[in-house]
Design brief:
With about 350 residues, the protein is of the alpha/beta class. The chain has three domains: about 140 residues, Cobalt-precorrin-4 Transmethylase, domain 1 (3-Layer(aba) Sandwich); about 100 residues, Rossmann fold (3-Layer(aba) Sandwich), CATH 3.40.50; about 80 residues, Cobalt-precorrin-4 Transmethylase, domain 1 (3-Layer(aba) Sandwich). Helices cover about 30% and strands about 15% of the residues. It contains ten helices and 14 strands. The chain is globular, with a radius of gyration of 22 Å. The protein binds iron/sulfur cluster. The site of iron/sulfur cluster (SF4) has 15 residues, from helix 1, helix 4 and helix 8.
């Protein structure tokens, strides 16, 4: 069985993707109906690398392969990998000694690495290299007697991993409001770093408020908010003013997906909703709508966007115009533990990732 993708082609129906009970119905509008499809969208280089790392680990070691936390914050990716023999755990202590474990793209603290070594696990570190860069900055500045103001969301795995690299010398700053309240130790050596998936605008506001209180606050050596987060926000800023509705495909625990909804509303979209699956798009959202913006977070496979476009075509949104604001061709090598085959020969297929949007 297959479904139309709205542009004459067909998509294979994946059993793990929930189907809607009833098709969306065409809505009547006074003007023409169209979709502005943001680009770049979807998979970033770090997510692509992490997912391929798990697939390679399955190929090389067989099931089960354990993964600490969700490998990337997307429920569909997690369900697909579970169906192939991956077991997701919250903590290293949940993994039988001697097993294979992959650390997620969001990174881990040194304490977690040590726990894995203590259990004699074969650990494969799929931390995104751009998160590792922030870890290194935390270690370096902490070692130079700086106090770090880490802008990020409490409880997010990436924040826990980064704080774990300099636990004594880091104060977390959740948002601009908290920037006005925090009381870091008194020091001339104060620097801010950030989570990679924040809103660029909100982070700059947090920094502005911090600098009002701490004029000597130093900037990080380079952007911590990663290229993928920034590019997806720039693309949505471009289309949002023209959109009656922006649909962001992404999971609720995906920080960069949630930020895209916020940015769309901030930049003029009349409404914006996040959905994991096309089947969550509600008929009521489409009433009176002429232009729909569509994008997806950095951990979202393109097939989920294809399904959203197919469902929206049932409602009469058959014209799809891609609006591209940047080209992306970054690729990361796989984790070093997977670059060589069992006999020690470098496997050329472990360099770089799949094609991305
Ligand atoms: S969103 Fe950015 S930091 Fe996170 S995995 Fe992708 S490239 Fe890496």
């Amino acid at each position: 069985m297959s479904i139309s993708n709205g542009s004459g082609g067909t998509l294979l129906e994946t059993p793990l993707i929930p189907q809607r009970a009833e098709k969306l119905r065409p809505v009547s509008t006074s003007g023409s109906k169209k979709i502005l499809l943001a680009a770049p969208r979807g998979y970033c280089a770090g997510v692509d690398r992490a997912v391929i790392a798990v697939e390679k680990a399955l190929e090389r070691f067989g099931a089960p392969v354990y993964v600490r936390k969700q490998i990337v914050h997307n429920i569909h990716v997690v369900r697909e990998l579970e169906a192939r023999g991956v077991i997701f755990v919250d903590e290293v202590a949940d993994v039988p000694p001697g097993s294979n474990i992959v650390f997620s793209a969001h990174g881990v603290s040194p304490a977690v690495v040590q726990q894995a070594a203590d259990r004699e696990l074969n650990a494969i570190d799929a931390t995104c290299p751009l998160v590792t860069k922030v870890h290194r900055e935390a270690v370096r500045f902490s070692g130079q007697d700086y106090h770090i103001l880490l802008i990020g969301h409490e409880g997010h795995e990436e924040v826990e991993g980064t704080m774990g690299h300099a636990p004594e010398n880091t104060t977390l700053v959740n948002d601009p409001e908290e920037a006005s309240r925090i009381e870091p130790p008194e020091t001339e050596n104060l620097i801010w770093l950030s989570q990679t998936t924040l809103s660029v605008d909100e982070t700059m506001e947090t920094v502005r408020r911090l600098r009002e209180r701490f004029p000597h606050l130093q900037d990080p050596p380079s952007d911590d908010i990663c290229y993928a987060t920034q590019n997806r926000q720039v693309a949505i800023k471009k289309i949002a003013p023209e959109c009656d509705l922006v649909i962001v495909v992404g999971s609720p625990n995906s920080s960069n997906s949630v930020r895209l909804v916020e940015v769309a509303l901030e930049y003029g979209a009349k409404a914006s909703y996040r959905v994991d699956y096309a089947s969550e798009i509600e008929q009521a959202w489409l009433e009176g709508v002429e232009t729909i913006g569509v994008t997806s977070g950095a951990s979202v496979p393109e097939v989920l966007v294809d399904h959203a476009l197919a469902d929206l075509s049932d409602a009469g949104f058959t014209v799809v115009e891609e609006v591209r604001t940047a080209e992306e061709d970054l690729q990361f090598s796989l984790p070093k533990e997977l670059r060589k085959d069992a006999s020690g020969v470098v496997d050329p297929s472990t360099i770089g990732g799949r094609n991305r949007t």
